[in-house]
Amino acid sequence: MTPPEAASPPPPQGGAPSGPAKPDPRRPLARPRLVRRAVHGVLLLDKPLGWSSNDALQKAKWLLRAEKAGHTGTLDPLATGLLPLCFGAATKFSQVSLDADKAYRATLRLGQRTTTGDLEGEVVDERPVEVDRARLDAVVARFCGAIDQLPPMHSALKKDGKALYEYARAGQSVERPTRRVNIHALDIVDWHDAVLVIDVRCSKGTYIRTLAEDIGEALGCGAHLTALRRTASGPLTLAGAVTLAELEALDEPARLARLQPLDTLLADWPRLTLPADEAGKFLSGLRRRVARPDAAAVRVYGPDAAFLGSAHITAGELIADRLLSPAEVQSLSSPDRPPAPEPLPAAA
Fold first, then answer.
1. How far apart are the first and last CA of the chain?
2. What is the span of the domain harbouring residue 189?
3. What is the 3-state secondary structure (H, E, C) of 25-71?
């Protein structure tokens, strides 16, 4: 009699053949896991229409297989243009670009106000456009210099931990304080019928949508924003910027070659170079004596033009603000690193 433990296993239920399971054609094959790596540098992205800044960042991060990334100031989905993206060690200096002046080309539709101040909203007011060039020039000139703006309800600014656009979508309007901004330059590019195109150079935090509405009210006809393109951020311009489609079409080495050096965001700061013995001490966070006048911000380099970080100078002392780690300095100085692209032209 055959012992129970030696008996043959029962046949599979339903008469199905034994053996490894076959893949189910109805289920998509699992995509291979993306292997990320340390990537350091600044990508000048020309953000496409309809994309949020974060969606554009995540796409670029995926294309570069980067471990760490961040953008330097939100552009609305309806806006296009320059969006500097920071990767790896460059994220330490992203605040520089956040605080920098910006430049935009804006297109206004005169004679109509909308619920959102742009073409996404419903038209709530229509008035005839009875404006001549002399009046237009006079009104536009009034908005140059320091002005107060009331942040729009359809914005990401938060009140009591909640974005203003969330209140707006619920049909609520909440009190918000005005903010002081500075319009450095405001130039009329084109004007015909009810369409006005302007170039704006302004301080951080300026709402171009609000500027468009305020100009329309000052003209007596109302206005809303129909197109917006960021053309500069600090010393950076659209020259050398790449679109997501262009980046995706490149192979991996060519994508990495589009990264600008870490100090790109600080390109308009004074430069200070330290000898090898001083550079090492500075990189460890020690204050160094320098024969230089006081400066609110400087970019600091060591031997062989190795970028070390940012600092300020007070009473002859060089005081570190943001430093690279020794490992990051070594990595960025590696001979295997792709050559840096040519320096970009400064913003006008």
1. 97
2. 102-233
3. CCCCCCCCCCCCECCCEEEEEEECCCCCHHHHHHHHHHHHCECCEEE
Tell me: do 220 and 113 sit in the same domain: yes
The average confidence (pLDDT) of the chain is 87
Which residues touch 9 (CB under 8 Å, ≥6 apart)?
none
Q: Catalytic annotation on 76?
A: yes
Distance CA 87, CA 189 (A): 35
Flag whether pLDDT at 324 surpasses 50.
Answer: yes
Rounded CA-CA distance 151/153 in Å is: 7
For residue 125, the surrounding DSSP H or E stretch is strand 123-126
Ramachandran quadrant class, 113 (left: phi over 0; alpha: psi -120 to 50; beta: rest): beta
Q: Is the pLDDT of residue 104 over 70?
A: yes
Global pTM? Answer: 0.82
CATH of the domain at 56: 3.30.70
Give the whole-angstrom CA distance, residue 109 versus residue 222. 9
Quick one: pLDDT at residue 12? 45
CB neighbour list of residue 135: distance below 8 Å, 6 or more residues apart:
219
Catalytically annotated residue among 46, 55, 76, 132: 76
